[in-house]
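BUG: 3D viewer hangs when loading the predicted structure for this chain

Environment: internal workstation, default settings.
Expected: structure renders.
Actual: progress bar stalls at 90%.

Input used:
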Amino acid sequence: QVQLVESGGGLVQPGGSLRLPCAASGITFSTSTMDWYRQAPGKERVLVAVITSGGSTNYADSVKGRFTISRDNAKNTVYLQMNSLKPEDTAVYYCHTRVLRDRWGQGTQVTVSS
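C-alpha coordinates produced before the viewer hung:
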Protein backbone atom coordinates (compact mmCIF):
# COMPACT_ATOMS: atom_id res chain seq x y z
CA GLN A 1 0.00 0.00 0.00
CA VAL A 2 1.08 3.55 -0.67
CA GLN A 3 1.94 5.47 2.47
CA LEU A 4 3.54 8.85 3.15
CA VAL A 5 4.35 9.73 6.75
CA GLU A 6 5.17 13.33 7.65
CA SER A 7 7.01 14.29 10.83
CA GLY A 8 9.19 17.02 12.30
CA GLY A 9 6.50 19.57 13.08
CA GLY A 10 6.23 21.56 16.27
CA LEU A 11 6.19 24.98 17.85
CA VAL A 12 8.82 27.45 16.66
CA GLN A 13 9.39 31.18 17.18
CA PRO A 14 9.16 33.66 14.30
CA GLY A 15 12.46 33.68 12.44
CA GLY A 16 13.20 30.10 13.42
CA SER A 17 13.65 26.97 11.34
CA LEU A 18 12.24 23.46 11.04
CA ARG A 19 12.96 20.51 8.79
CA LEU A 20 10.09 18.21 7.89
CA PRO A 21 10.81 14.69 6.60
CA CYS A 22 8.29 12.60 4.70
CA ALA A 23 8.98 8.88 4.52
CA ALA A 24 7.48 7.10 1.53
CA SER A 25 6.62 3.44 1.04
CA GLY A 26 4.71 1.47 -1.56
CA ILE A 27 5.87 3.65 -4.47
CA THR A 28 8.79 3.76 -6.86
CA PHE A 29 10.20 6.75 -5.05
CA SER A 30 13.15 7.53 -7.31
CA THR A 31 10.89 8.17 -10.32
CA SER A 32 8.14 10.03 -8.44
CA THR A 33 7.56 13.75 -8.33
CA MET A 34 7.02 14.73 -4.70
CA ASP A 35 5.06 17.67 -3.33
CA TRP A 36 4.55 19.53 -0.08
CA TYR A 37 1.19 21.15 0.68
CA ARG A 38 -0.07 23.07 3.68
CA GLN A 39 -3.46 23.93 5.10
CA ALA A 40 -3.92 26.81 7.51
CA PRO A 41 -6.95 26.99 9.83
CA GLY A 42 -10.09 27.86 7.87
CA LYS A 43 -8.22 27.83 4.55
CA GLU A 44 -7.92 25.54 1.54
CA ARG A 45 -4.96 23.21 1.17
CA VAL A 46 -2.34 24.82 -1.09
CA LEU A 47 0.77 23.59 -2.86
CA VAL A 48 3.99 25.06 -1.48
CA ALA A 49 6.84 23.08 -3.07
CA VAL A 50 7.53 20.46 -5.77
CA ILE A 51 10.56 18.34 -6.60
CA THR A 52 10.78 16.13 -9.68
CA SER A 53 12.64 12.85 -10.05
CA GLY A 54 15.45 14.81 -11.70
CA GLY A 55 15.71 17.25 -8.82
CA SER A 56 14.02 20.28 -10.39
CA THR A 57 12.13 22.38 -7.85
CA ASN A 58 9.30 24.91 -7.79
CA TYR A 59 7.90 26.97 -4.93
CA ALA A 60 4.87 29.04 -4.11
CA ASP A 61 5.65 32.75 -4.04
CA SER A 62 4.78 32.85 -0.35
CA VAL A 63 7.70 30.57 0.57
CA LYS A 64 10.23 31.25 -2.19
CA GLY A 65 13.65 32.07 -0.79
CA ARG A 66 12.77 30.67 2.65
CA PHE A 67 11.83 27.01 2.05
CA THR A 68 13.85 24.30 0.30
CA ILE A 69 12.50 20.95 -0.88
CA SER A 70 14.96 18.09 -1.30
CA ARG A 71 14.99 14.32 -1.60
CA ASP A 72 17.13 11.38 -0.57
CA ASN A 73 16.29 8.48 -2.87
CA ALA A 74 18.37 6.03 -0.81
CA LYS A 75 16.09 6.74 2.16
CA ASN A 76 12.83 7.12 0.19
CA THR A 77 12.40 10.45 1.94
CA VAL A 78 11.50 13.96 0.82
CA TYR A 79 12.29 16.95 3.05
CA LEU A 80 11.03 20.47 3.50
CA GLN A 81 13.57 22.80 5.10
CA MET A 82 11.77 25.87 6.43
CA ASN A 83 13.79 28.94 7.41
CA SER A 84 12.83 32.46 8.48
CA LEU A 85 9.46 31.19 9.61
CA LYS A 86 6.55 33.61 9.95
CA PRO A 87 3.26 33.30 11.86
CA GLU A 88 1.46 32.99 8.52
CA ASP A 89 3.36 29.74 7.91
CA THR A 90 1.30 28.13 10.68
CA ALA A 91 -0.49 25.17 9.10
CA VAL A 92 -0.70 21.42 8.86
CA TYR A 93 1.93 20.33 6.33
CA TYR A 94 1.34 17.34 4.05
CA CYS A 95 3.54 15.55 1.55
CA HIS A 96 1.95 14.08 -1.55
CA THR A 97 2.64 12.27 -4.80
CA ARG A 98 0.55 11.60 -7.90
CA VAL A 99 -0.42 7.99 -7.14
CA LEU A 100 -2.18 9.07 -3.93
CA ARG A 101 -4.70 11.05 -6.03
CA ASP A 102 -7.31 12.36 -3.55
CA ARG A 103 -5.92 10.58 -0.50
CA TRP A 104 -3.94 12.33 2.22
CA GLY A 105 -1.98 11.36 5.29
CA GLN A 106 -2.32 12.91 8.71
CA GLY A 107 0.19 15.68 8.09
CA THR A 108 2.33 17.38 10.71
CA GLN A 109 1.41 20.55 12.61
CA VAL A 110 3.72 23.56 12.35
CA THR A 111 2.95 26.47 14.66
CA VAL A 112 4.96 29.69 14.41
CA SER A 113 4.33 31.89 17.42
CA SER A 114 6.16 33.86 20.08
